[in-house]
Write a structure and sequence with these properties.
Elements lengths: L9 H17 L10 E6 L4 E5 L12 E4 L17 H7 L4 E5 L12 H19 L5 E6 L1 H12 L5 E7 L17 H8 L4 H4 L1 H5 L5 H17 L5 H11 L9 E3 L2 E3 L8 E6 L7 H4 L2 H4 L6 E6 L5 H4 L7 H16 L11
Parallel strand pairs: 3-4, 3-5, 5-6, 6-9, 9-10
Antiparallel strand pairs: 1-2, 2-4, 7-8
Helix pairs in contact: 3-4
Length: 347
C-alpha cells in the first residue's frame, strides 16, 4: 500500500470520516435504487419497461431502447444513481425503454441467437414503436447486446429502427483473448474485465475512503457482480460460439434460422464505441465494424477509456462514452423530428 496516499488533508479526513459514519449507519454509500419504470410489455422471455421522466420533463424525439447482453443483468444500464446511463438519458429529455430478459435458470427457456434476432428484440422494438405513437427506435446495446442489435437490424430491414449505438461489441472473435471466454463464460469474462477488482483489492477501498464517488462505484460493481451470479451464462456461451464458428461475422455473415445474416445489410446509422482497456471486447475486436457495416448510411467509431463495464458506465464514461452517445442521439432527433412522445400505448 502506498503510505503517501494514506496521509489525508484535513478536508480529506473529514470526508473519510463522513463516509465511514454513513457506512456505519446505513451499510452503504451508493444509491442503488433502480430508476422508476413502468411495464409496457410483459412476456415469459422478455419484459419491456418505460423509464419515468423526471417531473416537469416532457421527452421528445425518437425513443431509446437499451438492449442488454444475453446472459447479463439489464441493470448494467442503471448501475447506481449518479452513474446510471439510463438516468442520464432520461434526464436529458429522452424517453428511455429497457428490454429485460431476466435470469433464466432452465436451459430450455433461454432464447438462442435465432430467437433473439427473430423474436425477442424485434418484439421489443415494435412494442416501443407502438408506445411512442409510431416513432422509430434508437437502439443502444452493450457487449453481445450490441452485436444482437446489429444482427436484428440486418435481418429485419422493415423494423422501425432509427439507429444503433453499440458499445464494446466484439465482432472479431480472433481478436478476443481466448483466456477470458471459456465457461463459465460470463463470470470469467467479467472477472477479466476487472468487475471484481474492488473485492480482490481491498487496499483500493482503504486508500479512497475520502472519495464517496469511488466508494459508491465499488459498491455498485459488487452489487452487479452479485446479480451476475443469478445468470447461468449458457445462452451467452451458445451465442458466442455461434458467432465464433468459422469467424462467421468476418466472413460474410452468420447462419441464423436457416438463412445468412450479414452485417453489410444493416441500413441504419451506427455508432460504435470501444474501450481502450477492454479485455473482453478489445478495440481490435470492435474496429472491423467500420468495414463490415458497408451498407449503413453512416458509421462512426469512437474509443473511450476503461474496461468492458467501465466503458459503459464507469466514472470516466460520463465524460467520454456518454458524451459520444449524447451527440449521436441529438443528431437522431434532428433526423427524425422533436415531436413529443406518447407516454401510453395507443388504444
Amino acid at each position: 500500500m502506498d503510505n503517501a496516499k494514506m496521509i489525508l488533508s484535513p478536508r480529506g479526513l473529514r470526508a473519510a470520516t463522513s463516509n465511514l459514519l454513513r457506512l456505519a449507519a446505513h451499510g452503504h454509500v451508493a444509491d442503488l435504487r433502480p430508476m422508476p419504470a413502468d411495464p409496457v410489455e410483459d412476456g415469459p422471455r422478455r419484459s419491456v419497461y418505460r423509464y419515468r421522466p423526471p417531473e416537469g420533463v416532457v421527452p421528445a424525439g425518437p425513443p431509446v431502447l437499451f438492449v442488454p447482453p444475453p446472459g447479463a443483468p439489464a441493470r448494467c444500464y442503471d448501475l447506481r444513481r449518479g452513474c446510471s446511463l439510463a438516468e442520464h438519458v432520461v434526464r436529458a429529455g429522452r424517453l428511455g425503454y429497457l428490454l429485460d430478459h431476466g435470469p433464466v435458470r432452465r436451459a430450455d427457456h433461454e432464447p438462442d441467437l435465432a430467437e433473439w434476432v427473430s423474436d425477442v428484440l424485434p418484439a421489443a422494438i415494435r412494442a416501443v414503436h407502438r408506445d411512442t405513437g409510431g416513432q422509430p427506435v434508437q437502439l443502444v446495446g452493450w457487449g453481445l447486446g450490441g452485436v444482437v442489435a446489429l444482427l436484428t437490424a440486418a435481418a429485419g430491414p422493415g423494423l422501425p429502427i432509427a439507429s444503433a449505438a453499440v458499445i464494446a461489441a466484439p465482432v472479431d472473435p480472433n481478436a478476443v483473448r481466448h483466456a477470458v471466454m471459456p465457461g463459465p463464460l460470463v463470470k470469467r469474462a467479467y472477472q477479466a474485465a476487472g468487475i471484481d477488482k474492488y473485492m480482490v483489492r481491498p487496499c483500493l477501498i482503504l486508500t479512497h475512503l475520502d472519495n464517496a464517488d469511488f466508494l459508491a462505484q465499488a459498491e455498485a460493481i459488487d452489487h452487479f457482480a452479485q446479480e451476475m451470479s443469478g445468470y447461468s451464462g449458457r445462452a451467452a456461451k451458445r451465442i458466442y460460439r455461434a458467432l465464433s464458428r468459422n469467424n462467421a461475422l468476418m466472413r460474410g455473415g452468420v447462419e441464423i434460422g436457416g438463412r445468412t445474416v450479414d452485417l453489410a445489410d444493416v441500413r441504419v446509422p451506427v455508432l460504435a464505441i470501444a474501450g481502450r482497456g477492454d479485455a473482453v471486447a478489445p478495440v481490435r475486436a470492435v474496429l472491423p465494424l467500420i468495414r463490415l457495416l458497408g451498407g449503413a448510411p453512416q458509421v462512426r467509431f469512437e474509443i473511450a477509456g476503461g474496461g468492458h463495464l467501465d466503458v459503459l458506465t464507469g466514472r470516466s464514461a460520463r465524460k467520454t462514452t456518454w458524451r459520444y452517445l449524447d451527440r449521436w442521439l441529438d443528431e437522431g432527433t434532428i433526423r427524425h423530428g422533436i415531436r413529443p412522445q406518447r407516454l401510453t400505448a395507443p388504444g
